[in-house]
């Protein structure tokens, strides 16, 4: 049998097997798709915990007090005599107050946790560095 | 004897088979380990707030989930409050004081604050004052 000799240009010089490369790339693609984190990133709100009965001493500065409670059927933020219903409005009030003594956020048992987080966020955005979470069962 | 010279056609070729084997093993390893890492993080509808811009450097002593039914979850498993508080007590003893303990609470935003308040009071009784409330940025991280 006569076999034709390979021609000069068909000697397989520098031929990389692309099939293997494609396999690897495909597996890498699947890997990153599976392990990619599509969930939303999380953040945190720092606060100290204070109970109602263990209040500050008389010599301490009195913090601003924000009560998160039900006002009718809505969740309201009471500060002094004023009641607001949005975090933005609460932040606007808190921005005008002295911040050295901090703020105490008194959270009623009946409000959703979202409201407590909104109050803490408003205090943070208004510039309060001392933020205290005060759980309260009274409403 | 007359020996034929080696022809130039025998050029070195890359043997990719071992490399593919190694890469495949690495992929399988990382897929397993990363999946286990995600399983421990329970999905919770956190409060929709942007949180603080400061980067938190110290990891919390505990990251406890407060599920929609008010139950506590640690590493995806439900734990009673009594058991969780025993773990907090042990951590206080181990770390040398309640001031060294930080709790990250990941609460469901629709849950009534009663569960969070009860947990806060229990922690306060033990002297733990530092905690963080987990939130989710409603803007998806863009502030």
In short:
The complex is a heterodimer of chains A (139) and B (143). Chain A has 139 residues and is of the alpha/beta class.
Secondary structure layout:
The complex is a heterodimer of chains A (139) and B (143).
Chain A: H1 18-35, E1 42-49, E2 64-71, E3 74-79, E4 82-84, H2 87-95, E5 103-108, H3 113-126, E6 131-136
Parallel strand pairs in A: 1-6, 2-5, 5-6
Antiparallel strand pairs in A: 2-3, 3-4
Chain B: H1 17-39, E1 62-66, E2 72-74, E3 77-79, H2 81-95, E4 102-107, H3 113-125, E5 130-136
Parallel strand pairs in B: 1-4, 4-5
Antiparallel strand pairs in B: 1-2, 2-3
Describe this structure in words.
The complex is a heterodimer of chains A (139) and B (143). Chain A has helices spanning 18-35, 87-95, 113-126, and strands spanning 42-49, 64-71, 74-79, 82-84, 103-108, 131-136. Helix content of chain A is 29%, strand content 27%. Chain A has a domain at 48-136: Nucleotidyltransferase, domain 5, CATH 3.30.420. The longest helix of chain A has 18 residues, at 18-35. Chain A has a six-stranded mixed beta sheet with strand order 1-6-5-2-3-4, covered by helices on one side. The N and C termini of chain A lie far apart (102 Å). Chain A is of the alpha/beta class and 139 residues long. Chain A is elongated, with a radius of gyration of 32 Å. In chain A, helix 2 (87-95) packs parallel to helix 3. Chain B has a domain at 62-133: Nucleotidyltransferase, domain 5. Chain B contains three helices and five strands, in the order H-E-E-E-H-E-H-E. Chain B has a five-stranded mixed beta sheet with strand order 3-2-1-4-5. Chain B has helices at residues 17-39, 81-95, 113-125, and strands at 62-66, 72-74, 77-79, 102-107, 130-136. In chain B, 36% of the residues lie in helices and 17% in strands. In chain B, 23% of the residues are buried. Strand 1 (42-49) of chain A pairs antiparallel with strand 5 (130-136) of chain B.
């Amino acid at each position: 049998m006569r076999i034709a000799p390979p021609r000069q240009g068909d000697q397989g010089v520098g031929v990389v097997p692309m099939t293997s490369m494609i396999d690897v790339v495909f597996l890498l693609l699947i890997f990153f798709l599976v392990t990619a984190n599509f969930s939303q990133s999380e953040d945190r709100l720092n606060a100290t915990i204070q109970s109602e009965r263990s209040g500050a001493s008389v010599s301490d500065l009195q913090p601003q007090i924000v009560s998160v409670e039900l006002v009718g059927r809505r969740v309201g933020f009471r500060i002094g005599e004023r009641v607001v219903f949005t975090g933005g409005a609460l932040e606007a009030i808190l921005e005008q107050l002295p911040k050295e003594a901090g703020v105490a956020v008194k959270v009623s048992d009946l409000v959703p946790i979202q409201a407590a987080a909104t109050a803490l966020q408003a205090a943070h955005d208004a510039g309060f560095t001392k933020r205290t979470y005060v759980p309260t069962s009274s409403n | 004897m007359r020996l034929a010279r080696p022809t130039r056609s025998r050029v070195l070729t890359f043997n990719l088979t071992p490399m593919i084997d190694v890469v495949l093993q690495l992929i399988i390893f990382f897929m397993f380990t990363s999946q286990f890492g995600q399983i421990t993080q329970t999905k919770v509808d956190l409060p929709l707030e942007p949180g603080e811009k400061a980067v938190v450097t110290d990891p919390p002593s505990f990251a406890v989930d407060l599920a929609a039914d008010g139950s506590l979850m640690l590493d995806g498993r439900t734990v009673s409050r009594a058991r969780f508080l025993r773990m907090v007590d042990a951590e206080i003893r181990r770390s040398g004081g309640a001031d060294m303990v930080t709790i990250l609470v990941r609460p469901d935003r629709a849950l009534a604050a009663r569960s969070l308040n009860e947990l806060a009071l229990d922690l306060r009784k033990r002297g733990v004052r530092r905690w963080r409330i987990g939130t989710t940025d409603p803007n998806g991280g863009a502030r």
